Amino acid sequence: MFLTSSYLLTFLLTVIIEIFVGYLFLLRDRESIVTIFFINLLTNPLINYLVFLNSKLNLLETNWYIIIILEVCIVLLESRLLVSVLKKESKRMLMLSIIMNSSSFLIGYLIYRLIL
């Protein structure tokens, strides 16, 4: 139960942060907000599942290198999805994806460090 509620809390925090960053990038229309939400609905569970699976199967030592590689993959995937759905310039969507993911990762990490 704790794991599920903890995951939902981190997911909601991620979505709120990333929608806020999108808002700062002037993506304020309904389509943009819904797109950011659904992209996170796809990529957030994906990265969490990969980290969880890796830790359970001991495929690779879960360290900062693995996390960074996964985050870079997510940034690239999310930027492509943003371009495809919103029909925006790819450099701008890549920058948006980098800032959204960096922001949510850093804020989440700081909250995690403060709680534990």
Q: Could you write a compact summary of the structure shown?
A:
This protein is an all-alpha fold and 116 residues long.
Layout of strands and helices, then pairs:
Layout: H1 2-24, H2 30-57, H3 64-86, H4 90-115
Helix pairs in contact: 1-2, 1-4, 2-3, 3-4
Distance between the termini: 19 Å
Largest sheet: none
Q: Indicate the proportion of strand residues.
A: under 5%
Kindly state the number of beta strands: 0
Parts with pLDDT < 50 across at least 5 consecutive residues? none
The total of helices stands at: 4
Structural class: mainly alpha
- Judging from the principal axes of the Cα atoms, what is the shape? globular
Helix content: over 70%
How many structural domains does the protein architecture include? 1
Mean pLDDT figure: 92
